[in-house]
Design a protein that fits this description.
With 171 residues, this protein is mainly beta. Helix content is 12%, strand content 40%. The longest helix is centred in the first third of the chain and has 10 residues.
């Protein structure tokens, strides 16, 4: 009996000092965050993507497969819940800097805001995080009626030139 008690004491885990509600990493109204795709920037910016993504945009790769000025990074889609239960979707362009990730641009995707969606999920094209070409592809699952049984699928696509396309999935 003492051996069982001793074993139970040895296997007991100490209480954790970290509690989820004490964390200030993300506000509680951020319901989904997905990082995916990549961009590399050359000296010239694409005006169409600059306009849509709030200033900075991906460009084309240099001749050696690396941007001449060394700017590169990834994209992040963020769903932020509003007080009425609907959500806004924001697109960020994140630079991989020597000091750590830096937000290059951040923009609300008005196409989603106009739908007043209830976001149920956001998924990247691949769960490995590895894409072979610049750009981004992600699927946003949403309901415009919270009582709907199945969500609608919408895609967010950024091509290698930085053009952004948001549309309902057709598959």
């Amino acid at each position: 009996m003492y051996k069982v008690l001793l074993l139970a004491l040895c296997l007991a885990l100490p209480p954790s000092k970290l509690l989820a509600q004490e964390s200030t990493i993300l506000p509680s109204n951020v319901i989904f965050v997905t990082s995916t795709g990549f961009w590399e920037e050359s000296g010239a910016l694409s005006g169409n993507a600059e306009e849509k993504a709030g200033g900075a945009t991906p460009g084309s790769q240099g001749a050696q497969g690396s941007p001449p000025d060394g700017k590169r990074g990834y994209y992040k889609l963020i769903a932020v819940r509003q007080s009425d239960g609907t959500a806004q979707v924001h697109l960020q362009q994140i630079a991989s800097a020597p000091t750590g990730p830096e937000v290059v641009s951040s923009a609300e995707l008005e196409e989603f805001t106009a739908l007043k969606p209830y976001i149920t999920d956001i998924r990247p094209e691949t769960s490995t995080g590895i894409t072979t070409q610049p750009g981004m592809f992600a699927t946003v699952y949403l309901k415009t009626d919270p009582s709907a049984k199945e969500p609608e699928s919408w895609t967010v696509l950024i091509d290698d030139l930085g053009d952004i396309k948001i549309e309902r999935a057709t598959n």
